[in-house]
Protein backbone atom coordinates (compact mmCIF):
# COMPACT_ATOMS: atom_id res chain seq x y z
CA UNK A 1 0.00 0.00 0.00
CA UNK A 2 2.65 2.51 0.90
CA UNK A 3 6.40 2.69 1.14
CA UNK A 4 8.58 5.70 1.75
CA UNK A 5 12.14 6.58 0.83
CA UNK A 6 13.92 9.63 2.19
CA UNK A 7 17.23 10.52 0.59
CA UNK A 8 19.59 13.03 2.26
CA UNK A 9 16.79 15.36 3.38
CA UNK A 10 18.08 18.70 4.55
CA UNK A 11 16.01 21.55 5.89
CA UNK A 12 17.27 24.96 6.92
CA UNK A 13 15.46 28.00 8.23
CA UNK A 14 17.61 30.95 7.32
CA UNK A 15 21.09 29.84 8.33
CA UNK A 16 19.90 27.36 10.92
CA UNK A 17 19.91 23.76 9.76
CA UNK A 18 17.17 21.68 11.40
CA UNK A 19 17.57 18.49 9.39
CA UNK A 20 21.13 17.55 8.48
CA UNK A 21 20.79 14.85 5.87
CA UNK A 22 18.20 12.20 6.71
CA UNK A 23 18.21 8.88 4.84
CA UNK A 24 15.47 6.45 5.68
CA UNK A 25 13.51 3.64 4.13
CA UNK A 26 10.06 2.64 5.36
CA UNK A 27 8.60 -0.58 4.03
CA UNK A 28 4.96 -1.18 3.21
CA UNK A 29 2.87 -1.82 6.30
CA UNK A 30 5.53 -0.81 8.79
CA UNK A 31 4.83 1.19 11.93
CA UNK A 32 7.75 3.60 12.22
CA UNK A 33 8.17 5.97 15.13
CA UNK A 34 10.38 9.05 15.22
CA UNK A 35 11.53 9.80 18.74
CA UNK A 36 13.91 12.35 20.09
CA UNK A 37 14.12 15.26 22.49
CA UNK A 38 12.27 18.46 21.58
CA UNK A 39 13.96 20.42 18.82
CA UNK A 40 15.54 17.33 17.27
CA UNK A 41 13.68 17.87 13.98
CA UNK A 42 11.23 14.96 14.20
CA UNK A 43 8.12 17.09 13.59
CA UNK A 44 9.85 19.00 10.79
CA UNK A 45 10.73 15.69 9.16
CA UNK A 46 7.10 14.55 9.38
CA UNK A 47 5.90 17.84 7.90
CA UNK A 48 8.40 17.48 5.09
CA UNK A 49 7.01 14.03 4.30
CA UNK A 50 3.50 15.50 4.36
CA UNK A 51 4.51 18.34 2.05
CA UNK A 52 3.60 21.03 4.56
CA UNK A 53 7.26 22.08 4.56
CA UNK A 54 9.59 21.96 1.59
CA UNK A 55 12.92 20.26 2.08
CA UNK A 56 15.88 22.51 1.32
CA UNK A 57 17.43 19.58 -0.52
CA UNK A 58 16.99 15.84 -0.84
CA UNK A 59 14.17 13.70 -2.14
CA UNK A 60 10.98 12.23 -0.71
CA UNK A 61 9.51 9.24 -2.53
CA UNK A 62 6.19 7.65 -1.71
CA UNK A 63 5.70 4.27 -3.41
CA UNK A 64 8.70 5.03 -5.57
CA UNK A 65 7.25 8.29 -6.89
CA UNK A 66 9.10 11.52 -6.24
CA UNK A 67 6.65 13.83 -4.43
CA UNK A 68 8.80 16.92 -3.94
CA UNK A 69 6.47 19.00 -6.11
CA UNK A 70 3.19 17.27 -5.25
CA UNK A 71 0.63 19.09 -3.08
CA UNK A 72 -0.09 17.53 0.35
CA UNK A 73 -3.60 16.50 -0.69
CA UNK A 74 -2.27 14.59 -3.72
CA UNK A 75 0.44 12.65 -1.91
CA UNK A 76 -1.90 9.95 -0.65
CA UNK A 77 -1.22 10.77 2.98
CA UNK A 78 -3.38 11.53 5.99
CA UNK A 79 -2.23 13.29 9.10
CA UNK A 80 -3.40 13.34 12.72
CA UNK A 81 -2.36 16.39 14.70
CA UNK A 82 -1.55 16.91 18.34
CA UNK A 83 -4.18 19.64 18.64
CA UNK A 84 -6.78 17.47 16.78
CA UNK A 85 -7.28 20.32 14.25
CA UNK A 86 -10.94 19.51 13.64
CA UNK A 87 -12.98 22.00 11.64
CA UNK A 88 -15.02 23.74 14.34
CA UNK A 89 -17.96 24.64 12.13
CA UNK A 90 -18.49 21.16 10.67
CA UNK A 91 -20.14 18.12 12.24
CA UNK A 92 -18.12 15.01 12.98
CA UNK A 93 -19.45 13.42 9.81
CA UNK A 94 -18.51 16.41 7.64
CA UNK A 95 -15.14 16.66 9.33
CA UNK A 96 -14.41 13.09 8.35
CA UNK A 97 -15.83 13.39 4.85
CA UNK A 98 -14.34 16.73 3.80
CA UNK A 99 -11.18 15.28 2.24
CA UNK A 100 -13.19 12.94 0.02
CA UNK A 101 -15.66 15.67 -0.85
CA UNK A 102 -12.79 17.88 -1.99
CA UNK A 103 -11.46 15.01 -4.07
CA UNK A 104 -14.83 14.73 -5.83
CA UNK A 105 -15.87 11.34 -4.46
CA UNK A 106 -19.63 10.72 -4.94
CA UNK A 107 -21.80 11.24 -1.88
CA UNK A 108 -23.02 7.66 -1.25
CA UNK A 109 -19.41 6.46 -1.29
CA UNK A 110 -18.40 9.13 1.25
CA UNK A 111 -21.33 8.09 3.47
CA UNK A 112 -20.25 4.48 3.30
CA UNK A 113 -16.59 5.18 4.11
CA UNK A 114 -17.41 7.57 6.94
CA UNK A 115 -19.85 5.02 8.34
CA UNK A 116 -17.22 2.30 8.23
CA UNK A 117 -14.55 4.43 9.92
CA UNK A 118 -17.02 5.60 12.54
CA UNK A 119 -17.84 1.96 13.24
CA UNK A 120 -14.19 1.08 13.75
CA UNK A 121 -13.76 3.90 16.25
CA UNK A 122 -17.24 3.61 17.86
CA UNK A 123 -18.06 7.15 16.83
CA UNK A 124 -21.56 6.46 15.45
CA UNK A 125 -23.48 8.22 18.25
CA UNK A 126 -21.51 11.42 17.69
CA UNK A 127 -21.71 11.81 13.90
CA UNK A 128 -24.11 14.75 14.03
CA UNK A 129 -22.24 16.63 16.75
CA UNK A 130 -19.74 19.43 16.38
CA UNK A 131 -16.21 19.13 17.78
CA UNK A 132 -17.01 21.55 20.62
CA UNK A 133 -19.50 19.02 22.00
CA UNK A 134 -16.95 16.21 22.25
CA UNK A 135 -14.41 15.28 24.90
CA UNK A 136 -10.68 15.30 24.18
CA UNK A 137 -10.50 11.56 23.57
CA UNK A 138 -13.51 11.63 21.26
CA UNK A 139 -12.01 14.52 19.32
CA UNK A 140 -8.79 12.65 18.78
CA UNK A 141 -10.77 9.60 17.61
CA UNK A 142 -12.57 11.84 15.10
CA UNK A 143 -9.20 13.11 13.91
CA UNK A 144 -8.01 9.52 13.48
CA UNK A 145 -11.28 8.70 11.73
CA UNK A 146 -10.74 11.58 9.34
CA UNK A 147 -7.40 10.03 8.45
CA UNK A 148 -8.82 6.51 7.98
CA UNK A 149 -11.60 7.70 5.68
CA UNK A 150 -9.04 8.94 3.17
CA UNK A 151 -7.55 5.43 2.87
CA UNK A 152 -4.07 6.87 2.56
CA UNK A 153 -0.85 5.17 1.56
CA UNK A 154 0.78 6.70 4.60
CA UNK A 155 -0.65 7.64 7.96
CA UNK A 156 1.25 10.45 9.68
CA UNK A 157 0.75 11.02 13.40
CA UNK A 158 2.18 14.15 15.01
CA UNK A 159 2.25 13.52 18.76
CA UNK A 160 -1.40 12.49 18.72
CA UNK A 161 -1.60 11.52 22.38
CA UNK A 162 0.18 14.48 23.98
CA UNK A 163 -3.00 16.38 24.78
CA UNK A 164 -4.77 13.41 26.39
CA UNK A 165 -4.66 12.47 30.05
CA UNK A 166 -2.79 9.34 31.16
CA UNK A 167 -5.69 6.86 31.13
CA UNK A 168 -7.01 7.99 27.75
CA UNK A 169 -3.51 7.93 26.38
CA UNK A 170 -3.21 4.22 27.10
CA UNK A 171 -6.64 3.51 25.57
CA UNK A 172 -5.96 5.52 22.45
CA UNK A 173 -2.54 3.91 22.15
CA UNK A 174 -4.16 0.48 22.14
CA UNK A 175 -6.67 1.71 19.60
CA UNK A 176 -3.93 2.90 17.27
CA UNK A 177 -2.11 -0.44 17.64
CA UNK A 178 -5.34 -2.28 16.83
CA UNK A 179 -5.94 -0.06 13.81
CA UNK A 180 -2.46 -0.72 12.52
CA UNK A 181 -3.07 -4.46 12.73
CA UNK A 182 -6.48 -4.35 11.06
CA UNK A 183 -5.62 -1.82 8.33
CA UNK A 184 -2.13 -3.19 7.61
CA UNK A 185 -1.27 0.40 6.71
CA UNK A 186 2.07 2.14 6.76
CA UNK A 187 2.19 4.51 9.70
CA UNK A 188 4.71 7.12 10.69
CA UNK A 189 4.36 8.46 14.17
CA UNK A 190 6.19 11.24 15.97
CA UNK A 191 6.47 11.31 19.74
CA UNK A 192 8.82 12.34 22.49
CA UNK A 193 7.38 9.66 24.75
CA UNK A 194 9.57 6.57 24.65
CA UNK A 195 6.83 4.37 26.13
CA UNK A 196 4.65 5.09 23.09
CA UNK A 197 7.62 4.39 20.87
CA UNK A 198 8.51 1.10 22.53
CA UNK A 199 4.92 -0.18 22.65
CA UNK A 200 3.74 0.75 19.15
CA UNK A 201 6.70 0.63 16.81
CA UNK A 202 7.95 -2.00 14.43
CA UNK A 203 10.89 0.29 13.89
CA UNK A 204 12.09 3.22 15.94
CA UNK A 205 14.09 6.07 14.47
CA UNK A 206 15.97 7.97 17.15
CA UNK A 207 16.70 11.54 16.10
CA UNK A 208 18.99 14.01 17.76
CA UNK A 209 20.03 17.46 16.52
CA UNK A 210 18.71 16.86 13.02
CA UNK A 211 20.47 13.53 12.49
CA UNK A 212 19.42 9.91 12.83
CA UNK A 213 21.23 8.33 15.76
CA UNK A 214 19.96 4.79 15.27
CA UNK A 215 17.23 2.87 13.49
CA UNK A 216 16.00 -0.46 14.80
CA UNK A 217 13.28 -2.47 16.44
CA UNK A 218 12.42 -1.48 20.03
CA UNK A 219 14.31 -4.47 21.46
CA UNK A 220 17.35 -3.82 19.28
CA UNK A 221 17.53 -0.29 20.59
CA UNK A 222 17.06 -1.49 24.14
CA UNK A 223 19.53 -4.35 24.01
CA UNK A 224 22.08 -3.00 21.56
CA UNK A 225 22.13 0.81 21.59
CA UNK A 226 24.62 2.08 19.02
CA UNK A 227 25.78 5.04 21.03
CA UNK A 228 25.54 6.91 24.31
CA UNK A 229 22.63 9.05 23.17
CA UNK A 230 20.38 6.13 22.27
CA UNK A 231 21.46 4.24 25.38
CA UNK A 232 20.46 7.20 27.52
CA UNK A 233 17.27 8.01 25.63
CA UNK A 234 15.71 4.55 25.47
CA UNK A 235 14.79 2.94 28.78
CA UNK A 236 13.34 4.38 31.94
CA UNK A 237 14.81 5.05 34.45
CA UNK A 238 17.80 6.12 32.41
CA UNK A 239 20.81 3.86 31.98
CA UNK A 240 23.63 4.31 34.53
CA UNK A 241 26.80 5.68 32.97
CA UNK A 242 30.03 4.95 34.78
CA UNK A 243 33.43 6.34 33.97
CA UNK A 244 35.51 3.60 32.29
CA UNK A 245 38.56 4.42 34.39
CA UNK A 246 36.79 3.29 37.53
CA UNK A 247 36.61 -0.18 36.03
CA UNK A 248 40.22 -0.10 35.04
CA UNK A 249 38.95 -0.67 31.51
CA UNK A 250 41.54 0.84 29.22
CA UNK A 251 39.39 0.65 26.10
CA UNK A 252 35.99 1.99 27.19
CA UNK A 253 35.55 5.65 28.07
CA UNK A 254 32.10 5.02 29.50
CA UNK A 255 30.34 1.89 30.67
CA UNK A 256 26.56 1.76 30.77
CA UNK A 257 24.35 -0.54 32.83
CA UNK A 258 20.57 -0.43 32.84
CA UNK A 259 19.00 0.00 36.29
CA UNK A 260 17.20 -3.34 35.88
CA UNK A 261 20.50 -5.11 35.23
CA UNK A 262 21.89 -4.49 38.69
CA UNK A 263 21.19 -6.74 41.65
CA UNK A 264 21.15 -5.58 45.26
CA UNK A 265 22.08 -7.48 48.39
CA UNK A 266 22.72 -6.56 52.01
CA UNK A 267 25.32 -9.25 52.50
CA UNK A 268 27.86 -8.75 49.80
CA UNK A 269 28.55 -7.86 46.18
CA UNK A 270 30.81 -5.95 43.82
CA UNK A 271 30.11 -2.37 44.86
CA UNK A 272 29.41 -1.17 48.36
CA UNK A 273 26.95 1.72 48.34
CA UNK A 274 24.69 3.85 50.47
CA UNK A 275 20.97 4.22 49.72
CA UNK A 276 20.05 7.85 48.99
CA UNK A 277 16.39 7.52 48.17
CA UNK A 278 13.84 4.81 47.43
CA UNK A 279 10.72 5.00 45.24
CA UNK A 280 8.10 2.33 45.81
CA UNK A 281 5.98 1.87 42.69
CA UNK A 282 4.28 -1.36 43.71
CA UNK A 283 5.44 -3.51 40.82
CA UNK A 284 8.91 -1.98 40.92
CA UNK A 285 11.15 -0.45 43.52
CA UNK A 286 13.62 2.14 42.32
CA UNK A 287 16.65 2.58 44.55
CA UNK A 288 19.06 5.50 44.18
CA UNK A 289 22.55 4.72 45.47
CA UNK A 290 25.81 6.53 46.01
CA UNK A 291 28.81 4.24 45.74
CA UNK A 292 32.43 5.12 46.48
CA UNK A 293 33.72 2.94 43.69
CA UNK A 294 31.43 3.84 40.76
CA UNK A 295 29.56 6.99 41.79
CA UNK A 296 25.77 7.44 41.70
CA UNK A 297 23.68 4.45 40.58
CA UNK A 298 20.01 3.88 39.91
CA UNK A 299 18.74 0.35 40.49
CA UNK A 300 15.37 -0.98 39.47
CA UNK A 301 14.18 -4.01 41.43
CA UNK A 302 11.05 -5.96 40.58
CA UNK A 303 8.48 -6.30 43.33
CA UNK A 304 8.57 -4.76 46.77
CA UNK A 305 11.79 -4.39 48.70
CA UNK A 306 12.32 -2.96 52.15
CA UNK A 307 15.26 -0.69 51.58
CA UNK A 308 15.36 2.72 53.23
CA UNK A 309 17.57 5.77 52.97
CA UNK A 310 21.02 5.45 54.61
CA UNK A 311 21.02 1.63 54.41
CA UNK A 312 24.32 0.17 53.32
CA UNK A 313 23.96 -2.33 50.47
CA UNK A 314 26.02 -4.10 47.84
CA UNK A 315 25.26 -3.74 44.14
CA UNK A 316 26.25 -6.33 41.55
CA UNK A 317 25.86 -5.89 37.79
CA UNK A 318 24.20 -8.72 35.87
CA UNK A 319 26.63 -10.49 33.58
CA UNK A 320 26.20 -9.38 29.95
CA UNK A 321 24.27 -6.29 31.00
CA UNK A 322 27.20 -3.97 30.42
CA UNK A 323 27.40 -1.63 27.42
CA UNK A 324 30.85 -0.21 26.64
CA UNK A 325 31.30 3.07 24.74
CA UNK A 326 34.46 4.61 23.26
CA UNK A 327 35.58 8.24 23.50
CA UNK A 328 33.22 9.29 20.66
CA UNK A 329 30.27 7.73 22.48
CA UNK A 330 30.01 4.81 20.03
CA UNK A 331 29.44 1.33 21.33
CA UNK A 332 32.36 -1.14 21.43
CA UNK A 333 31.25 -4.54 20.25
CA UNK A 334 33.26 -7.00 22.24
CA UNK A 335 32.20 -10.52 21.52
CA UNK A 336 28.49 -9.73 21.33
CA UNK B 1 -19.94 35.65 39.92
CA UNK B 2 -19.87 33.40 42.92
CA UNK B 3 -21.32 34.61 46.17
CA UNK B 4 -18.05 34.05 48.00
CA UNK B 5 -16.25 36.66 45.95
CA UNK B 6 -18.81 39.44 46.05
CA UNK B 7 -19.75 41.88 48.73
CA UNK B 8 -22.59 44.36 48.69
CA UNK B 9 -20.25 47.35 48.90
CA UNK B 10 -18.03 46.19 46.06
CA UNK B 11 -20.94 45.33 43.77
CA UNK B 12 -22.51 48.68 44.64
CA UNK B 13 -19.32 50.58 43.79
CA UNK B 14 -18.96 48.79 40.47
CA UNK B 15 -22.55 49.50 39.55
CA UNK B 16 -22.24 53.12 40.59
CA UNK B 17 -19.23 53.59 38.32
CA UNK B 18 -20.94 51.86 35.41
CA UNK B 19 -24.15 53.84 35.83
CA UNK B 20 -22.25 57.11 36.06
CA UNK B 21 -20.36 56.30 32.87
CA UNK B 22 -23.56 55.32 31.09
CA UNK B 23 -25.17 58.63 32.05
CA UNK B 24 -22.20 60.61 30.78
CA UNK B 25 -22.13 58.68 27.53
CA UNK B 26 -25.85 58.90 26.91
CA UNK B 27 -26.31 62.55 27.86
CA UNK B 28 -25.49 64.11 24.46
CA UNK B 29 -27.68 61.54 22.73
CA UNK B 30 -30.51 62.31 25.11
CA UNK B 31 -30.06 66.05 24.57
CA UNK B 32 -30.13 65.67 20.80
CA UNK B 33 -33.17 63.45 20.68
CA UNK B 34 -35.19 65.29 23.35
CA UNK B 35 -34.59 68.70 21.82
CA UNK B 36 -35.35 67.50 18.31
CA UNK B 37 -38.98 67.11 19.41
CA UNK B 38 -39.27 70.66 20.81
CA UNK B 39 -40.16 74.02 19.32
CA UNK B 40 -37.37 76.50 18.67
CA UNK B 41 -38.27 78.70 21.65
CA UNK B 42 -38.48 75.73 24.00
CA UNK B 43 -35.02 74.52 22.97
CA UNK B 44 -33.46 77.79 24.05
CA UNK B 45 -35.65 78.42 27.08
CA UNK B 46 -35.14 75.03 28.74
CA UNK B 47 -32.57 72.94 26.83
CA UNK B 48 -32.53 70.16 29.45
CA UNK B 49 -36.30 69.68 29.75
CA UNK B 50 -38.25 66.81 28.24
CA UNK B 51 -40.70 67.81 25.51
CA UNK B 52 -44.04 68.70 27.15
CA UNK B 53 -47.43 68.94 25.38
CA UNK B 54 -46.87 72.71 25.12
CA UNK B 55 -43.30 72.57 23.83
CA UNK B 56 -43.71 69.46 21.64
CA UNK B 57 -43.15 70.13 17.96
CA UNK B 58 -42.25 68.15 14.88
CA UNK B 59 -41.22 71.23 12.97
CA UNK B 60 -37.59 70.04 12.81
CA UNK B 61 -38.48 66.72 11.19
CA UNK B 62 -40.87 68.43 8.81
CA UNK B 63 -38.14 70.81 7.71
CA UNK B 64 -35.66 68.01 7.26
CA UNK B 65 -38.00 65.91 5.18
CA UNK B 66 -39.17 68.84 3.05
CA UNK B 67 -35.79 70.39 2.44
CA UNK B 68 -33.62 68.52 0.04
CA UNK B 69 -33.69 64.80 -0.63
CA UNK B 70 -33.00 63.42 2.81
CA UNK B 71 -33.98 59.87 1.98
CA UNK B 72 -31.44 60.07 -0.84
CA UNK B 73 -28.76 61.36 1.57
CA UNK B 74 -29.46 58.42 3.85
CA UNK B 75 -29.16 56.00 1.00
CA UNK B 76 -25.84 57.54 0.00
CA UNK B 77 -24.48 57.30 3.54
CA UNK B 78 -25.58 53.68 3.92
CA UNK B 79 -24.19 52.66 0.54
CA UNK B 80 -20.85 54.35 1.16
CA UNK B 81 -20.51 52.95 4.69
CA UNK B 82 -21.59 49.40 3.96
CA UNK B 83 -19.57 49.02 0.75
CA UNK B 84 -16.48 50.55 2.38
CA UNK B 85 -16.73 48.23 5.39
CA UNK B 86 -17.15 45.24 3.11
CA UNK B 87 -14.09 46.19 1.06
CA UNK B 88 -12.00 47.00 4.13
CA UNK B 89 -12.86 43.68 5.73
CA UNK B 90 -12.26 41.67 2.57
CA UNK B 91 -8.95 43.22 1.53
CA UNK B 92 -7.78 43.80 5.09
CA UNK B 93 -8.37 40.16 6.01
CA UNK B 94 -6.69 38.91 2.85
CA UNK B 95 -3.61 41.05 3.42
CA UNK B 96 -3.54 40.04 7.08
CA UNK B 97 -3.73 36.36 6.12
CA UNK B 98 -0.83 36.69 3.70
CA UNK B 99 1.26 38.54 6.27
CA UNK B 100 0.57 36.12 9.09
CA UNK B 101 0.57 32.86 7.13
CA UNK B 102 3.31 33.04 4.53
CA UNK B 103 6.99 33.47 5.10
CA UNK B 104 8.45 35.63 2.36
CA UNK B 105 11.24 38.13 1.96
CA UNK B 106 10.19 41.54 3.25
CA UNK B 107 7.25 40.19 5.23
CA UNK B 108 7.93 42.43 8.25
CA UNK B 109 8.64 45.48 6.10
CA UNK B 110 5.43 44.93 4.16
CA UNK B 111 3.52 44.67 7.45
CA UNK B 112 5.00 47.94 8.68
CA UNK B 113 4.27 49.61 5.35
CA UNK B 114 0.64 48.53 5.48
CA UNK B 115 0.33 49.73 9.08
CA UNK B 116 1.93 53.09 8.34
CA UNK B 117 -1.47 54.52 7.44
CA UNK B 118 -2.51 54.33 11.09
CA UNK B 119 0.03 57.01 11.91
CA UNK B 120 -0.42 59.30 8.90
CA UNK B 121 -3.86 60.93 8.53
CA UNK B 122 -5.29 60.40 5.08
CA UNK B 123 -6.54 64.01 5.05
CA UNK B 124 -2.97 65.18 4.49
CA UNK B 125 -3.31 63.85 0.98
CA UNK B 126 -6.62 65.60 0.26
CA UNK B 127 -5.30 67.82 -2.53
CA UNK B 128 -3.62 64.94 -4.31
CA UNK B 129 -6.70 62.76 -3.84
CA UNK B 130 -8.92 65.48 -5.30
CA UNK B 131 -6.57 65.90 -8.26
CA UNK B 132 -6.63 62.17 -8.80
CA UNK B 133 -10.41 62.01 -8.63
CA UNK B 134 -10.73 64.92 -11.08
CA UNK B 135 -8.33 63.22 -13.47
CA UNK B 136 -10.29 59.95 -13.32
CA UNK B 137 -13.68 61.68 -13.54
CA UNK B 138 -14.74 60.31 -10.18
CA UNK B 139 -15.63 63.63 -8.54
CA UNK B 140 -19.24 63.68 -7.34
CA UNK B 141 -19.57 59.91 -7.36
CA UNK B 142 -20.02 57.58 -4.41
CA UNK B 143 -17.16 55.49 -5.84
CA UNK B 144 -14.76 58.31 -4.95
CA UNK B 145 -15.85 58.22 -1.31
CA UNK B 146 -15.78 54.42 -1.17
CA UNK B 147 -12.23 54.32 -2.54
CA UNK B 148 -10.98 56.91 -0.06
CA UNK B 149 -12.68 55.28 2.93
CA UNK B 150 -11.41 51.84 1.96
CA UNK B 151 -7.88 53.22 1.89
CA UNK B 152 -8.48 54.97 5.20
CA UNK B 153 -9.77 51.84 6.94
CA UNK B 154 -7.28 49.29 5.62
CA UNK B 155 -4.21 50.01 7.79
CA UNK B 156 -5.98 49.43 11.08
CA UNK B 157 -7.82 46.42 9.68
CA UNK B 158 -4.60 44.79 8.48
CA UNK B 159 -2.88 45.52 11.77
CA UNK B 160 -5.62 44.12 14.02
CA UNK B 161 -6.52 41.14 11.83
CA UNK B 162 -2.95 39.97 11.23
CA UNK B 163 -2.40 39.81 14.98
CA UNK B 164 -5.57 37.74 15.37
CA UNK B 165 -4.77 35.45 12.48
CA UNK B 166 -1.46 34.51 14.03
CA UNK B 167 -3.47 32.94 16.84
CA UNK B 168 -5.34 30.59 14.49
CA UNK B 169 -3.85 27.13 14.87
CA UNK B 170 -1.37 26.07 12.17
CA UNK B 171 -2.52 22.49 12.57
CA UNK B 172 -6.03 23.46 11.49
CA UNK B 173 -4.76 25.13 8.32
CA UNK B 174 -2.46 22.19 7.62
CA UNK B 175 -5.33 19.75 8.13
CA UNK B 176 -7.20 21.74 5.51
CA UNK B 177 -4.26 21.55 3.12
CA UNK B 178 -4.04 17.79 3.55
CA UNK B 179 -7.79 17.50 2.94
CA UNK B 180 -7.27 19.31 -0.35
CA UNK B 181 -8.69 22.74 0.47
CA UNK B 182 -7.22 25.53 -1.63
CA UNK B 183 -5.56 28.48 0.09
CA UNK B 184 -8.69 30.51 -0.65
CA UNK B 185 -10.92 27.86 0.89
CA UNK B 186 -8.67 27.75 3.96
CA UNK B 187 -8.93 31.52 4.22
CA UNK B 188 -12.67 31.81 3.70
CA UNK B 189 -13.88 28.61 5.35
CA UNK B 190 -11.45 27.98 8.20
CA UNK B 191 -9.73 31.22 9.16
CA UNK B 192 -12.41 33.85 8.64
CA UNK B 193 -15.04 32.17 10.84
CA UNK B 194 -12.46 31.89 13.62
CA UNK B 195 -11.48 35.57 13.53
CA UNK B 196 -15.08 36.76 13.28
CA UNK B 197 -14.96 38.65 16.60
CA UNK B 198 -11.92 40.56 15.36
CA UNK B 199 -13.69 41.29 12.08
CA UNK B 200 -16.62 42.76 14.01
CA UNK B 201 -14.26 44.95 16.03
CA UNK B 202 -12.64 46.23 12.85
CA UNK B 203 -16.05 46.81 11.28
CA UNK B 204 -17.18 48.97 14.20
CA UNK B 205 -13.95 50.97 14.26
CA UNK B 206 -14.16 51.49 10.50
CA UNK B 207 -17.84 52.33 10.40
CA UNK B 208 -18.10 55.23 12.85
CA UNK B 209 -15.58 57.64 11.25
CA UNK B 210 -16.97 56.94 7.78
CA UNK B 211 -20.56 57.59 8.79
CA UNK B 212 -19.65 60.79 10.62
CA UNK B 213 -17.21 62.16 8.07
CA UNK B 214 -17.88 65.62 6.66
CA UNK B 215 -14.51 66.34 5.06
CA UNK B 216 -14.41 64.02 2.08
CA UNK B 217 -18.13 64.26 1.12
CA UNK B 218 -17.72 68.05 1.15
CA UNK B 219 -14.64 67.95 -1.05
CA UNK B 220 -15.15 64.94 -3.30
CA UNK B 221 -18.91 64.55 -3.61
CA UNK B 222 -20.84 67.71 -2.73
CA UNK B 223 -23.41 67.27 -5.54
CA UNK B 224 -27.04 66.98 -4.56
CA UNK B 225 -27.27 63.36 -5.75
CA UNK B 226 -24.21 62.19 -3.81
CA UNK B 227 -24.58 64.10 -0.52
CA UNK B 228 -24.29 62.05 2.66
CA UNK B 229 -26.38 62.68 5.77
CA UNK B 230 -23.63 64.54 7.57
CA UNK B 231 -23.12 66.85 4.62
CA UNK B 232 -26.86 67.20 4.04
CA UNK B 233 -27.39 68.37 7.63
CA UNK B 234 -24.90 71.16 7.11
CA UNK B 235 -27.36 73.20 5.07
CA UNK B 236 -29.19 73.95 8.32
CA UNK B 237 -26.08 75.35 9.96
CA UNK B 238 -25.51 78.84 8.61
CA UNK B 239 -22.89 81.42 9.39
CA UNK B 240 -25.45 83.67 11.07
CA UNK B 241 -28.58 81.61 11.57
CA UNK B 242 -28.73 77.96 12.48
CA UNK B 243 -31.95 76.00 12.25
CA UNK B 244 -31.45 73.98 15.42
CA UNK B 245 -34.73 72.11 15.09
CA UNK B 246 -33.67 70.77 11.74
CA UNK B 247 -30.08 70.05 12.75
CA UNK B 248 -31.12 68.09 15.83
CA UNK B 249 -33.79 66.16 13.91
CA UNK B 250 -31.35 65.27 11.17
CA UNK B 251 -28.79 64.09 13.73
CA UNK B 252 -31.41 62.06 15.61
CA UNK B 253 -32.34 60.32 12.38
CA UNK B 254 -28.66 59.74 11.59
CA UNK B 255 -28.13 57.85 14.83
CA UNK B 256 -30.41 54.94 13.92
CA UNK B 257 -28.66 53.32 10.97
CA UNK B 258 -25.37 53.27 12.91
CA UNK B 259 -27.17 51.80 15.85
CA UNK B 260 -28.58 49.01 13.69
CA UNK B 261 -25.17 48.23 12.16
CA UNK B 262 -23.58 48.28 15.60
CA UNK B 263 -26.13 45.83 16.98
CA UNK B 264 -25.45 43.48 14.08
CA UNK B 265 -21.67 43.56 14.60
CA UNK B 266 -21.78 43.35 18.37
CA UNK B 267 -23.78 40.13 18.14
CA UNK B 268 -20.87 38.75 16.14
CA UNK B 269 -18.50 39.97 18.83
CA UNK B 270 -20.30 38.00 21.48
CA UNK B 271 -21.06 34.83 19.56
CA UNK B 272 -18.12 32.48 19.65
CA UNK B 273 -18.19 29.22 17.72
CA UNK B 274 -14.46 28.81 18.17
CA UNK B 275 -14.71 27.15 21.57
CA UNK B 276 -13.32 23.63 21.52
CA UNK B 277 -12.06 23.77 17.96
CA UNK B 278 -8.47 23.27 18.93
CA UNK B 279 -7.24 22.68 22.40
Describe what you observe in this structure:
The complex is a heterodimer of chains A (336) and B (279). Chain A folds into 2 domains: 4-230, P-loop containing nucleotide triphosphate hydrolases (Rossmann fold, 3-Layer(aba) Sandwich), CATH 3.40.50.300; 259-325, Nucleic acid-binding proteins (OB fold (Dihydrolipoamide Acetyltransferase, E2P)), CATH 2.40.50.140. In chain A, 25% of the residues lie in helices and 32% in strands. Chain A contains 8 helices and 18 strands. In chain A, helix 2 (92-102) crosses helix 3 and helix 3 crosses helix 4 (136-149). The radius of gyration of chain A is 24 Å and the shape is globular. Chain B is mainly α. The longest helix of chain B has 32 residues, at 70-101. The radius of gyration of chain B is 23 Å and the shape is flat. The chains are: A alpha+beta (336), B mainly alpha (279). The interface between A and B is medium-sized, with 33 and 22 residues.
